[in-house]
From TrEMBL:
It holds the Pfam family ScfRs. GO terms for cellular component: cytosol. This is Helix-turn-helix domain-containing protein. It comes from the Bacteria. The keyword DNA-binding applies. InterPro entries: Cro/C1-type_HTH (IPR001387), Lambda_DNA-bd_dom_sf (IPR010982), ScfR_C (IPR018653), TransReg_Diox_bact_type (IPR050807). Keywords: DNA-binding. GO terms for molecular function: DNA binding; DNA-binding transcription factor activity. Residues 14-68 form the HTH cro/C1-type domain.
Length: 434
């Protein structure tokens, strides 16, 4: 692959603009407060540049800062995201990443595309795993297949073992064998259809998975809704228009419902006020709740949801969110690496998410240890939702749980050994296992 022209590099652009203005290198260096030798390194693309120095250079050179860095920052962000997912805690080489992005935009685009493809495949794998473990329609289809196999095996065993079987009975068993085989064929075809979408392609996404992908792509933070004011409808429409899968009517309807709930949270507790408050409280939900209690009207679940929607920035810890109704099925989730949450069925009965369903309005906190040994703190509360109920009507109750990694100082005596849900949990000796 041919190298990109030097003018695509930030340093080269600075040098060309300086020469076009007839400025000496020393004069420019003095004007922005750096040494000529340091500016020489920048112009030869041996030093990264950003922040205040970039703005000063742009001012002296009489250009917009974006004209010096256009096309570089986006590629750097994509490469850093890919490195973080692939390498984890292993630091990626970043000293000359801007040069890599500028010189090899094609390879940068390839890495970004592979990263996006990997994320999509991981989502499909996660969806398939959940469906194999929990989907009731799939479980019923599998049960029917196994029942047909058992019937065929029993009939065949009788025909093989009973040598002196009455001809009339033998004919009846042959007919049963034929009917069971026909039934097995139909049920196997139906089981296959559980994994195939109409047409040539395969798609395992249900409406809730499509909506979850939309929230994941946005980092569970929608800036246009946060700042929409009275134009909430237009902001929601803009989000739906740019999101994949919204041509599907059930997915679009579900997405609009959840975005309107998000907009209501943003109206009640604006992020412009909440984010600084959470930062000052060290992103500790208990301290955040104490500080935001008045603004939130005492709504614990609102504070937990706003914590999960904090925009990504330095100091904001990884967060997961799970919301369920009284049946235990998850209505909404924000996935957290290392903490598995099933999509279709209920999670672990030991989670605070389910404990609070028996104590409406009473917040709870626990430290959870996964079967792999990772520890997480979980804050949960169950509250009635919607308009006040009339006498004799059962209120609709929703439980909300925020999850964050626990520090090493956690007291082992306070830890609850749990899992992702009984269907796929490896803890055989758990008393709560069903």
């Amino acid at each position: 692959m041919a190298k990109a022209p030097p003018e695509h590099l930030t340093g080269s652009r600075i040098r060309e603009r300086r020469l076009a203005l007839g400025l000496k290198q020393g004069a420019l260096a003095e004007a922005v407060g750096v040494s000529p030798s340091y500016l020489n390194l920048i112009e030869h693309n041996h030093r990264r540049i950003g922040g205040k120095l970039l703005l000063e250079l742009a001012r002296v050179l009489k250009v917009d800062a974006s004209a010096l860095t256009d096309g570089v920052d986006a590629g750097i962000s994509e490469l850093l995201d890919a490195a973080a997912r692939a390498l984890g805690d292993v630091p990626a080489e970043t000293a000359r990443i801007d040069e890599l992005v500028a010189r090899f935009p094609g390879w940068t685009a390839l890495i970004a595309a592979q990263e996006a493809r990997a994320r999509a495949l991981e989502g499909q794998i996660d969806a398939l795993r959940d469906r194999l473990a929990h989907d009731p329609a799939l479980a019923e289809a599998m049960h029917e297949v196994l029942s047909s196999v058992a019937a065929i095996r029993t009939t065949a065993d009788i025909l093989v073992r009973e040598k002196d079987l009455d001809p009339a009975w033998r004919g009846r068993f042959h007919r049963n064998l034929h009917e069971d085989a026909e039934r097995l064929s139909g049920r196997a075809t139906g089981l296959l259809a559980q994994f195939e979408a109409p047409g040539a392609g395969a798609d395992v996404s249900a409406p809730e998975e499509t909506v979850e992908a939309m929230f994941e792509a946005a980092g569970h933070y929608f800036s246009e809704i946060e700042t929409a004011g009275d134009a909430v409808d237009a902001a929601i429409e803009a989000v739906l228009a740019r999101s994949a899968g919204m041509e599907d009517a059930p997915a679009r309807a579900r997405a609009e419902t959840q975005l309107r709930a998000y907009a209501e949270d943003a109206r009640r507790l604006p992020m412009v006020d909440f984010a600084p408050l959470a930062r000052a409280a060290g992103h500790d939900p208990a301290r955040v709740l104490a500080a935001a209690g008045g603004a939130a009207g005492g709504d614990v679940a609102l504070v937990l949801r706003r914590m999960a929607s904090l925009p990504a920035e330095d100091g904001v810890p990884p967060r997961g969110l799970a919301i369920c109704d009284a049946s235990g099925a998850l209505l909404h989730r924000r996935r957290l690496q290392g903490f598995a949450m099933p999509r279709v069925a209920a999670g672990c009965p030991l989670w605070p998410l389910y404990r609070v369903l028996g104590r409406i309005g009473q917040a709870d906190m626990a430290v959870i240890e996964t079967p792999q040994g990772a520890r997480f703190k979980a804050w949960a509360v169950a509250q009635p939702v919607g308009e006040p109920q009339a006498f004799g009507q059962v209120p609709r109750v929703v439980a909300t749980m925020l999850v964050m990694p626990a520090g090493p100082e956690t007291d082992a005596s306070e830890v609850i050994a749990s899992g992702p849900g009984c269907g796929i949990c490896p803890r055989e000796g758990c008393l709560a296992r069903r």
